[in-house]
Write a structure and sequence with these properties.
alpha+beta, 3 helices, single chain, three-stranded antiparallel β-sheet, 36% strand, 153 residues
Length: 153
């Protein structure tokens, strides 16, 4: 059997432009403090979720450890492997004020639902981050991670 490899992009990033989401009411820019945030509606309540914060959330051990955690916990779906499916999934989630991961969603699909679900599943296993901070106060911040599923030939 040929060895199967999948890789995680080592570049972890947060975009300042977001896809349209029915829960996002508006996006604001505070030019004085150089921060962007969105007003998100959840269960008839609104809350501010930052796109960029003065101090961004940090995974324990940094981005290298986040990459390692994902590579050790991401499961390449058997049905995707057997059908030769590969692709990139861009997942967005919120790191809340306590550092917990919540509300994961696929922003850019691999076009193969099993790969998308595998990416969501590994995000749901992430341990707590150090939360993002704005003016010394923990705040919820959007976080995006690309995951590349690739089969060796």
């Amino acid at each position: 059997m040929k060895p199967i490899y999948f890789s995680i992009l080592s570049i972890l990033f947060v975009y300042s432009s977001f896809a349209q989401d029915s829960n996002v009411q508006k996006t604001e820019q505070d030019n004085e403090n150089h921060v962007s945030f969105k007003i998100v509606k959840e269960n008839d309540t609104e809350r501010t979720v930052y796109i960029r914060a003065e101090i961004m959330p940090q995974f324990p051990g940094g981005n290298f450890e986040l990459q390692r955690f994902i590579s050790h916990n991401l499961i390449y779906p058997i049905e995707a492997m057997s059908q030769g499916q590969s692709g990139t999934v861009l997942v967005q989630f919120i790191v809340n004020e306590e550092g917990n991961v919540e509300s994961p969603e696929v922003l850019v699909s691999s076009t193969y639902p099993a790969l998308d679900q595998a990416a969501i599943d590994v995000v749901n296993k992430l341990p707590s981050f150090t939360p993002g901070m704005q003016m010394g106060i923990p705040v919820p911040v959007f976080y995006r991670v690309p995951m590349v599923f690739e089969l060796s030939r």
